[in-house]
């Protein structure tokens, strides 16, 4: 976390801007971050521009270690991911790096999340009965389940809505702590440690060390423990030191609006 | 068990194949009519909307192939075009099955056509992850029936596909085994090829080399054919060797309206035009999609016929934003000039 001592805070910002700022602040310098399209890219770039210039991004289509200063990529496979990359191969190589243990964090999302940080990005409907004819078909795993399996930790970005935070997923695409039992991931053969943080439009969440259930760590500005719980479809644990997350600084917002996403591709201006 | 070629069929087809270093240039019409047959498993190169074999799939649509199996990790435009043709007229063109990890347009949203086909039960689905599909092509390229992989352990993914989870004979811990994927034909778009089929890929390789080596046949489209002598000056930069390739077709802008590294960026305006048409179709209005296909696919004989209809300023813009630093764009104001608002 960066020091806020002398910095000016901004009062006018959107939930998406807050999510990106939170995503950036949880990233540590000099770590290898395997990232998906969209908000994770903005968060990584913001971190590179502020407290963590030594972050090493990896994109699944093949680029390792780029600096995203050629304009924000519109895809993890597009040309802009290769700007100043230090290694450039393909999907197999990128994912092999995760299995080998080179990737400290995976940065992923989904349409649904359960209390143990498992994610669904495949389908809505009864599984397996309706798998071949789902009620709503989502794009599919892409690389999310690979990151969830084999990055050492994952950071999850979600829109905080009750219908997305559910006790039971309709389909488990990307493994978190599975049923939450001790050693569940290891028994399944998964090498990574599992979810580290969930960053949402309303809260910063983590997981209880014993039960692996989701725990509220901080509320975003303007939210309360109650408002976060009301928008969550299962009971949250609440950290005894729960606090209010600091709003974006003037400089963080300037970087997002003017340098990183000036055309508002990922961060809508409202 | 094998939905495309079995490993032994794939091997014997290669053993019988003429590997001579010969001139493989031909028209896209000839390449597709010679190599793509009904019921085939097609390995789709590229990644989401980057370096997708768009010109090739347009020709496959024109030739009206049926009951195809599409194998890919992440795709957008190429498969959306194929599915759109099926949505308009199943008698003219059809897909039977999908083996895939992701079908969507990332920033541009969910796929209207994946939703249409799957929510109406019109295609068989087999979900995998990106690594799974890449490893399946790699297993095939290695001449092995399977590769072990950590994903999709722990998820619901293996409950709906043919992966096998076993206890590793060495560690005793669970590991997933993924069956090789041998397409009948790989569809690959690259920046540079020579007349024999050697390919030099710019930017991320995606899984194109593995798909080409896994398939029985490969159709390569390229932005530019370069002299063989130039190609072999840097043999370590050859990503696909000539004997894995059966057809070489020079098609500038062959991945348009997608992105082709170091050549052109996405044409957001055109992608939106197509997206609006497929979404209108999903919501019950087939007219814009029929009009789109008539204008850009059925009403033309090849990709030149489509590209002639795209305003020059729009094509210039996607090349400029690909080649110039963002900072230069702002200084010259090119970005403003060519944002395509005046197009159409």
Automatic annotation (TrEMBL), chain A:
Signal peptide positions on this chain: none
UniProt-recorded Gene Ontology molecular function terms: CoA-transferase activity
SUPFAM superfamilies: NagB/RpiA/CoA transferase-like (SSF100950)
Keywords: Transferase
Gene3D superfamilies per the UniProt record, alphabetical: Glutaconate Coenzyme A-transferase (3.40.1080.10)
Keyword Transferase: yes
PANTHER family tied to this protein: ACETATE COA-TRANSFERASE YDIF, CHOLESTEROL RING-CLEAVING HYDROLASE IPDB SUBUNIT
Name recorded for this polypeptide: Glutaconate CoA-transferase subunit B
Origin species: Desulforamulus aeronauticus DSM 10349
UniProtKB/TrEMBL annotation, chain B:
SMART domains named in the record: CoA_trans (SM00882)
Gene3D superfamilies per UniProt: 3.30.30.40, Glutaconate Coenzyme A-transferase (3.40.1080.10)
Record-linked InterPro entries: CoA_trans_fam_I, NagB/RpiA_transferase-like
SUPFAM superfamilies: NagB/RpiA/CoA transferase-like (SSF100950)
Chain ranges passing through the membrane: none
UniProt-recorded Gene Ontology molecular function terms: CoA-transferase activity
Record keywords, A-Z: Transferase
First and last residue of the signal peptide: none
Pfam families: CoA_trans
Family: Belongs to the 3-oxoacid CoA-transferase subunit B family.
Protein name: Glutaconate CoA-transferase subunit A
